Amino acid sequence: MALTNPMPMGPWKLTVYDQENFQGKRVEFTSACQNIMECGMDTARSLKVECGAWVGYEHSSFCGQQFILERGDYPRWESWSGSNAYHIERLMSFRPICSANHKESKITVFERENFIGHQWEITDDYPSLNAMGWSCNEIGSMQVQSGAWVCYQYPGYRGYQYIMECDHHGGEYKHYREWGSHAQTFQVQSLRRVQQ
Amino acid sequence: MALTNPMPMGPWKLTVYDQENFQGKRVEFTSACQNIMECGMDTARSLKVECGAWVGYEHSSFCGQQFILERGDYPRWESWSGSNAYHIERLMSFRPICSANHKESKITVFERENFIGHQWEITDDYPSLNAMGWSCNEIGSMQVQSGAWVCYQYPGYRGYQYIMECDHHGGEYKHYREWGSHAQTFQVQSLRRVQQ
């Protein structure tokens, strides 16, 4: 069963299964899905990203926890989830990350909200911001100049994930409230480019 | 309480707590700890890496699941664990990763065991090997020319972790049985440099 976008925006393909380990009913997507229940499935419990980078969400309409999905196989929730304390066993909406550009990504991070305080322009992946001289465990605000980024609560790309894109919010994320509906603190300890 | 290494090998510092959220008894390490129970603690449930990159292990004597620990705060097991299906709530041994070198790291991955088949020399971080043209979800063997690397079971740096170092095994990892005592398959879908 294929739900083909009549006007595809890019080379994206995601196959979703309603059971773990690529079992059960399956649906293919080549563009955003706002609510998987409107596509003939109750839930997404495993998935294969065949083309492009995607973001999956806990709830419909792109709300709740965000999960970066790059090319490869995701047989169970543990393969996408970063927060085990509050784990999400299924995904309800998805969309392609159109601005992902592994080679040319740039983000400026600021010590405080509203682009104030000490700042740092980043073009590479940093599993520990702390190790590279960022003195605290928080980022106050961010400006994405190009590409798309994933920020993580903990070092080593763990914990809550926040997808930051140059073509969303004009690339400006002034306060953690703009990072996503699940963000509750400024805590960010690692960050990396999204791979297309 | 500080357990200072009489002959420190590098600028490493790790503080371990026996309760979550940096509570309870604490011990500082500046070099490897083979068994935390011999250092006056029963368990490690939270930790702060203040200097250098470390690897933490599920069991004593550097056995069982491996967890990369770079600079930053790790308040609970979820902040270091990548496999939620088989989660490890405490760590029992630690050691510094002496060869970590974020700027100059090189690894060659091979399609099949014993350094056979299609090969690829890697010097950058890859959240999805698949996306970069590696055609399967497995790596047969690896040779670390410089630096230290973390390989992960799933894309996006999730799932089981395997630390690969140029100064261990002569940098040669011929078969998954040499990746660590917890390795059970050749499955590797993402890989990155360890940051010092």
From TrEMBL, chains A, B:
Protein task: Crystallins are the dominant structural components of the vertebrate eye lens.
Cited SMART domains: XTALbg
Homology family: Belongs to the beta/gamma-crystallin family.
One Pfam assignment: Crystall
Recorded coiled-coil stretches: none
UniProt keyword Cell membrane, yes or no: no
InterPro entries documented for this protein: Beta/Gamma-Crystallin, Beta/gamma_crystallin, G_crystallin-like
One biological process term in Gene Ontology: visual perception
Domain Beta/gamma crystallin 'Greek key' per the UniProt entry, residue ranges: 12-51, 52-98, 105-146
Record keywords, A-Z: Eye lens protein, Repeat
GO molecular function: structural constituent of eye lens
Organism, as annotated: Phoxinus phoxinus (Eurasian minnow)
Stated name of the protein: Beta/gamma crystallin 'Greek key' domain-containing protein
